[in-house]
Amino acid sequence: MGTRLKLTVFICLVALLAALPMAGACAPKEKPVSDLVVKVEWVEPIAIAMKPYQIPKSLAGEYSIYHVIMSLTNPNDVLVTAEWLEATLCAGKIRSALQADTPIYIPPGKEVIIRMPVSMNTLNTVKWVVMHYGLGVPDAVKTVLGTWKAVQQGTASYQVTGAVRVKAEGASTIRHQNFDLRWP
Questions:
Q1: Under CATH, which number does the domain 37-183 receive?
Q2: What one-character DSSP code corresponds to residue 27?
Q3: Is the model's pLDDT at 22 over the cut of 70?
Q4: What pTM value is reported for the model?
Q5: What are the residue ranges spanned by the domains of the chain?
Q6: DSSP code of residue 102
Q7: Higher-scoring residue by pLDDT: 28, 75
Q8: Which of 130, 126, 151 has the alpha carbon at shortest distance from 56?
Q9: For a designed S-S bond to 87, which of 74, 98, 143, 150 qualifies (C-beta 3.0 to 4.6 A apart)?
Q10: What is the pLDDT confidence band of residue 172, given thresholds at 50, 70 and 90?
Q11: How far is CA 62 from the centre of its chain?
């Protein structure tokens, strides 16, 4: 190999090595993932076994069932997966936990509606009110029955708080996003 050829190869290698950092600067950068838009569309009492202010024969056998309908909107231009979603439904002084069982896939720029069923045992709810609010059992029963009455009459307001773990297609990070929603 002649001196001239060696010098040409050397110059080409130096130029290539110098150009590598600039080539990285031109590569597309990973965009941060924007928060999902989480909304409570509807809280639907499906079955309220008790009539307002009537104590049933057995609190242990009484259950109330709700469906919480939520929408998740993906403002990103890539597919986003809600790997898990956990929430707490509050109606008056009553709380219950919700959890999505499977990942939720949300296409870019689209909205997905999810329905989460909630089952609340009246006896456990009364116990929870006694423990967390320090009420006596008669007052706790009255509080729970009052909440059921508001639910049945359609005057109850709901709060859904929780978190969702979000992963975006092509993104290397998984993020947690908290939400605090009210309905109506």
A1: 2.60.40
A2: S
A3: no
A4: 0.71
A5: 37-183
A6: S
A7: 75
A8: 126
A9: 98
A10: low
A11: 28
